[in-house]
Design goal:
Blueprint lengths: L3 H16 L7 H5 L3 H21 L6 H12 L1 H11 L5 H12 L11 H19 L3 H13 L4
């Protein structure tokens, strides 16, 4: 049975192939990227997932879609998601989150608590890492858990 995650997995895989496969980058090369670079791409991948998930629920007003998306993408929500996922993350995944969380960025968040912002950066670094190394199955597994979380 096919669901919205099957299509997303195909899209992520094809996009990654275009960007990474031809550069001969290994997982260890990608692991050494600055965590802010991983978070940069992870933010985009995660945002695409959230928007895809929300739109797959049927056509509704864009303003309502935006309000629902905020419940998943704002720093506080991502920090909470990171905490809820902690026990199912591998040691390697926890290390990526920790590196992202501990990396100092050049900017200070305007509308977010600094600790939430750092945990959100760790979460986005994990998403970026899994995406860039091509582990879309694990990424989809995490996304499916997030989709089941109650984000009121």
């Amino acid at each position: 049975m096919m669901n919205e995650f099957d299509n997303l997995e195909d899209l992520l895989g094809q996009t990654r192939e275009l960007l990474i496969e031809n550069k001969n980058l290994s997982a260890s090369d990608i692991r050494m990227y600055n965590p802010l670079v991983l978070a940069y791409i992870g933010d985009s991948v995660y945002d695409t997932f959230i928007r895809t998930m929300l739109v797959s629920g049927g056509s509704i007003q864009v303003n309502k879609l935006h309000k629902r998306a905020i419940k998943f993408v704002q720093a506080k929500a991502q920090a909470e998601i990171t905490e809820e996922l902690h026990d199912i993350l591998t040691e390697e995944e926890q290390d990526i989150v920790r590196r992202g969380r501990n990396t100092k960025s050049g900017s200070v968040p305007k509308n977010a608590d600094i600790n939430d912002y750092r945990y959100a950066t760790g979460f986005e670094a994990l998403v970026g890492y899994l995406y860039l190394i091509g582990n879309t199955k694990r990424l989809i597994e995490i996304f499916e858990l997030i989709a089941k979380m109650d984000r009121k």
